[in-house]
C-alpha cells in the first residue's frame, strides 16, 4: 500500500517540486556535500553530491526531469546529459579529480524508443575513462522511497490515512497531530526521513488544492526538527540539512501561493466573491488571514537573498490590508498569530501608518465581538464549528454557549503595539478591551521543550496578564510582566534565525515570542 501511495506521489510531482525531497533522499542514502545548482549556468547539472563506496569517494552529478520521456524528449536531453558527464564547471565543491558518476533522474519512465536509445547510450559509455551513467526512473525512486529501510519503509498507518483524506477532512489539526510523531528523543538521529514524509503529504495537499496546508506542513517539519535537537550546543549536520530543506519546502509552496494571488484581490469585493455561499462570512476573513500569514512569512524569509521580491510582496500586502476588511477580522484566537508576520513585514518597510490603521481595525472588531450580548471569540484550539457558533450564535436559541471572556488575539495586539512602541495604538486598544471586560491570557514558556507545544514540558498559562492601563514611557516598550521576565532568546533563534522562531508560532497558534519580534524589527531587545 505504501509503495502504491508513493507511486501516486511521484506521478503527481512537478520538476521543481521534487528538488527539496530529492536533497533529503540523497542525504538519507549516504550522499554528502549536496548542492542544488538549477539555474541559467548549471552546465547540465541540477545537483552534485559525493558518495563513498568501498573506500572510494565518487563525485556524482544529477539531472532531474518530471514525467515520462519519449524518444524525442530523451534526445532533447542528450545535450544536457553529455554536459552532465563531461563538463566540470558546476560549483567550487565539484572535485574534478574524483572518479565521476552521472545520474539522469526522471519521475516517470523512458517510454517507446527512449528506453532502447538510453540503453544503447549507456552501453556506449561502458568503456574506460567514461563516467558511469545510470538512469533513475519512477520505479527506482519508488524503491528508494518506499522499500529501502532508510526512507519511508515502516511509516505509521496515519501516513496512508492522510494520503487517502480528501476535502474538508484534510485540515490543519489532522496534520499537526500527525507531525508530533516527528519529534524524536534527544538520542535519535535528526528526522530527514520525516522530512520526506512531510514532502509527500505536502504534495497531496497541493493536489487537494490546499496549498496553504502544504506551507504549514513544511513549518511543522521545521518545528519537529528544532524540538528533536533542542538543547544541543551546536546543530548536528543532519539537523542543519533538515532545517534548510524544510525552509526550502515552505518557500516552494508559499511562492506558488504568492504567484496565484499576485496582482489579485486588491478590490474590496474581489476575494469575498470567490465564495458565494452563506459561509463566506466565515471563509472570507480566514482566507484573508491565511494569505497574509503565509505570504508575509515568505517575504521575511527571502528578504536577505531576494530583496526585490520582499519589497514587491510588502507593497502588495500594504494594498491588500487596505482593500480587505476581513484581513483585520480574526474569527477566533486561532488566527491571532496571523496578524504578526504581516505587521512585522510592513513595519520593517516603513508602513507605520498602515500598520497602525490595520491593527486599530482589528481592535474595533475584537471589542465588538465581546460587547454586550455577544459570546466572545473561540480559543486557539477551537474547531470551525465552535468558531462559527461563537461568532454567529447570539441570535439563535439553539446555541447555548456562555460568554468567553478570554482573548488571546487581544493580548497579541497589545504585545504588537508594545514592540512597535506605538503609544496611541496601545492606549486605544487597552481602553477598548477594558471597556468590554476582556481577559488577556498569555502562554509563558522557558527555553525548554515547553516552547514547542502544550503537550511538551510545563508551559505556564497566565489567564489574566496585567498589562499597564496606559503606556508608560519610562518602561520603554515593556508594558506587561511577561516582557520583563523569562528567557529573552529561545533555542530556534539561538541556533538559527529569528524568522525560524516566528515561523514556529504559526504551528503552535497559542504563543509568541516578543523579543524575537523586536530583533526582526531591528530594535534593541
Number of strands: 7
Helix content: 40-55%
C-alpha geometry: elongated
Main structural class: alpha/beta
Number of helices: 20
How are the strands of the largest sheet arranged? 1-2-3-4-5
Low-confidence stretches: none
Strand residue content: 5-15%
Number of domains: 3
Largest sheet: 5 strands, mixed
Distance between the termini: 52 Å
Radius of gyration: 25 Å
Order of helices and strands: HHEEEHEHEHHHHHHHHHHHHHEEHHH
Average pLDDT, all residues: 90
Please write out the topology.
Blueprint: H1 2-12, H2 19-28, E1 32-36, E2 47-53, E3 56-65, H3 71-86, E4 100-106, H4 113-125, E5 132-136, H5 138-147, H6 157-163, H7 172-179, H8 192-207, H9 211-228, H10 237-261, H11 280-302, H12 307-323, H13 339-348, H14 352-370, H15 384-392, H16 408-420, H17 423-435, E6 442-444, E7 460-462, H18 491-495, H19 498-508, H20 514-520
Parallel strand pairs: 3-4, 4-5
Antiparallel strand pairs: 1-2, 2-3, 6-7
Helix pairs in contact: 1-5, 2-8, 2-10, 3-4, 7-9, 8-9, 8-10, 9-10, 9-19, 10-11, 11-12, 11-13, 11-19, 13-14, 13-16, 14-17, 16-17, 16-20, 19-20
